[in-house]
Amino acid sequence: MQQTTSKSGGLAELKRKVLFTFLLLATCRVGIHIPVPGVDSQAMSDFFASMKSTLFGLFDMFAGGGLSNLSIFALGIMPYISASIIIQLLTVVSPELKRLSKEEGAAGRKKITQYTRYGTVLIAAIQGFGIAIGIENMSSPTGVPVVMAAGWAFRATTIMTLVSGTVLLMWLGEQITEYGIGNGISLIIFAGIVAQLPGAIINTFRLMGAGQISLFVALLLAILVAGVLVFIVFMERGQRRIPIQYAKRMLGRKMYGGQTTHLPLKINTAGVIPPIFASSILMFPATLATFSQSDWLSRFSAMFDPSTVLYNVVFVALIIFFCYFYTAIIFDPKDIAENIRKQGGFIPGIRPGLRTREYIDKVLTRITLWGSLYISAICVLPMVLISQFNVPFYFGGTGVLIAVVVAMDTMSKVDSYLITHQYEGLMQKTRIKGRR
What confidence score (pLDDT) does residue 52 get? Predict the structure, then answer.
């Protein structure tokens, strides 16, 4: 009876958390449709319709379509992600930040979070100023100017609005993480990507009705998408488990230790950061060419069109590089080997210390190669379908990868929450029987 009561209480609490999460995500979606003062939203949308292959198109995906109409959430959560990545990189090279993250505990992590927030405001202000300057000379294909009244008043208003929107999104993400279910920042990005799915489906049926896509091609595309999703789930759950053996120790008259556990190494340790970095670098020339009249820059940008072989080769090379680079930042074999040695553990057949570190580094290097190839295949496949087979695949591999990974992470948190409440019910039931 006690276990049933605890389980029902856990389900009720989970429902409240899920409802709270949905309400905050709905708030984010409402803000996407509120434009910055002084901007013609329709002219802005028409202008962005021809810029999907530029860096703005990538940012617009993460902003959930908020950048294409310059809404109050136009910058999305990207300034926060950029600040977090910068802080992570600085933690590796800065002894002070490294001490805060490893030695100060919760107080140190709180301090790093505060630095991340300051960095978010700074990056958002810089990006807001750049957008305000850039769109003053923009106009739609029909010649309608995007900005109604250019000047410093418009620039100041745009900067304050965009910074405030980014800070509000950051706060909403933190509230979801603390009081809702799942990682708030990831769920905001997930909601922005998934919100574009109905439009893509409707457009596909429209093309089928117009006879531009046959029913066979549509079914083949659906099967291919399902196969890609299954493949992503399979690879994201893939691990290389290194066995760890702990030596037996005598404490008084009792023997402790002797257990065997494992060290799980994910195939995709770097997550979705490598394709984001690679896409940003390759789209940068196309973005510059949009604002420049230089012929050589336009020719250089044309060389890196997503439909070209050169673009895809460089894209894959950058993904592999960033997979190794980011894995080296977030996973240190030296610290892992040292922690295993301090706890009295060892890898069977491998001496503790330096040999353990070399072994872990060797295994991590091998599985990272397969992880980088897997990410490359997922990100390049939509471009190949579009360029070679004229398939209307409206989501890039990066967006699909983010959506699947976030969905898996959220579901695992829901399962963990339910299992935790079941264990609490069992413990309470055991204590009641013990009293009797």
Answer: 55
Q: Report residues of the chain scoring pLDDT below 70.
A: 1-10, 49-63, 103-105, 141, 248-258, 284-294, 387-396, 421-436
Contact call for residues 200 and 395 (beta carbons, < 8 A): yes
CA-wise closest residue to 129 among 160, 170, 97: 160
Residues 206-251 pLDDT 10s: 877 777 777 787 788 888 888 888 999 899 888 889 988 887 665 6
Taking the CA atoms of 303, 306, 307 and 312 in sequence, report the sign of the dihedral they define: positive
Question: Radius of gyration of the chain from Cα atoms?
Answer: 25
Q: Please give the Cα distance from 275 to 323 (Å, whole number).
A: 9
Kindly tell me the sign of the dihedral angle through the C-alpha atoms of 312, 316, 318, 323: positive
Q: Give the integer Cα–Cα distance in Å for 277 and 386.
A: 22
Strand partners, 239: 266
Q: Please give the backbone phi and psi of residue 195, each rounded to the nearest 5 degrees, phi first.
A: -60, -20
CB 58 within 8 A of CB 291: no
Cα(224)–Cα(212) distance, integer angstroms: 19
Q: Report the 10 Å Cβ neighbour count for 309.
A: 8
- The 8 Å CB, 24+ separation contacts for 111-118 are 112/87, 115/87, 116/80, 116/83, 116/84, 116/87, 117/83, 117/170
How many whole angstroms separate alpha carbon 333 and alpha carbon 360?
6
Instruction: Tell which residue, 272, 60, 275, 71, has the closest CA to residue 186.
Output: 272
**All residues at 6 or more sequence positions from 100 whose CB lies less than 8 Å from its CB, including other chains:** 108, 109, 111, 112
* pTM metric for this prediction: 0.78
- Structure tokens that stand for 418 in this block: 């339910």
